[in-house]
Write a structure and sequence with these properties.
With about 120 residues, the chain is of the alpha+beta class. The protein has helices at about 1-15, 50-55, 55-120; strands spanning about 20-25, 30-35. It folds into 2 domains: about 1-55, no CATH class; about 55-120. The protein has a two-stranded antiparallel ribbon with strand order 1-2. The mean pLDDT is about 80. Keywords: Coiled coil. It comes from Hevea brasiliensis (Para rubber tree).
Length: about 120
Amino acid sequence: MQDKQQEGCKAKQQEGCKAMILLKREKPGRWIVRKFLGAHNHPLVDQLPKSRQKLDEKDKKIQELTTELHIKKRLSTAYREQLLTFMKDVEDHNVHLSTKVQLIFDNLKKLEAERQELLQHK
């Protein structure tokens, strides 16, 4: 009985609704909008029954956990990118330090050779 009352209300709400779309076919596969009136005087979507309007607790928990998982995944991706950037910086710095250490080692070898040469000439 309630369904019939709802249908009656729905029909009354939609009476006098001026919303419309008028299409014209120009060629096969090509249509154009000739007229569009989008103002409705009724809801466009039927409302859910009251029993399903509110998600039950399991659905809410699943939704919360899914949202939390998406947030954690985004954070994890951001942390991973930061870690990879940091590791690249450390590697670049390591190469730079290795080059400097090699230069120092080469200079010490030259100085030692020059010192040995000076000692031999004395």
